Amino acid sequence: MDLEKKILTLIENDAKMSIKTIATILDMEESRVAEILAKLEKDKVILGYSTIIDWDKIGVDGVTAMIDVKLTPEREVGFNRTAERICRFPEVRCVYLMSGTYDLSVIVEGKTMKDVAWFVSHKLSTLDQVQSTVTHFVLKRYKEDNFVFEEPQQDKRLVVSP
User: Fold this and answer.
1) Considering Cα of 127, then 129, then 133, then 137, what sign does the dihedral take?
2) Radius of gyration of the chain measured on its C-alpha atoms
3) pTM here?
């Protein structure tokens, strides 16, 4: 399991890392690394590989919103059935069970704010277990999954001292 954790940590930080590089870093055979990765994929420990894209740099517009959802839990299944249903909507990127005032945190994407508003009013809020929602629109992404979108700008003001 320790070896699996080391491999997972490496690819979590760089999904493009080759089997050869992983084997070199961990001082092991490439075939063994490939075998472990195949097992982790088969066992659904590795669910997929993703890429973090700065869509703003190529002029693609879109809206991301974080929606806090208060639910009425269902007997014997709690929040699970409703959360699973919300997961199936194509607009939904993430669903988290939360502690605190709201039960779920749902991250959705749309082309416009109206798209997100329509999703909330016509799909999400119409579910029987949904009591209330609060929508927060993302204005700017600074960091996501350990990737910083813009390097901090240096302070170019002149130093003035008495």
Assistant:
1) negative
2) 21
3) 0.80
pLDDT of residue 101: 95
User: Residue 110: is its pLDDT beyond 80?
Assistant: yes
pLDDT digits (tens, 9 = 90+) for 8-62: 999 998 899 999 999 999 999 999 999 999 999 999 999 998 888 888 889 888 9
Q: What is the mean pLDDT of residues 81-103?
A: 96
Q: Which residue intervals of 27-125 are DSSP H helices?
A: 30-42, 80-87, 113-118
* Beta-carbon contacts of residue 52 (< 8 Å; ≥ 6 apart): 144, 145, 147
What is the CATH number assigned to the segment(s) 55-139? 3.30.70.920
> What are the CA-CA distances from residue 9 to residues 94, 115, 149 (Å)?
21, 36, 21
Domain limits, CATH 1.10.10, in the chain: 2-42
For domain 2-42, which CATH number applies: 3.30.1450, 2.40.128, 2.10.240, 1.10.10? 1.10.10
In the chain, which residues fall in CATH 3.30.70.920?
55-139
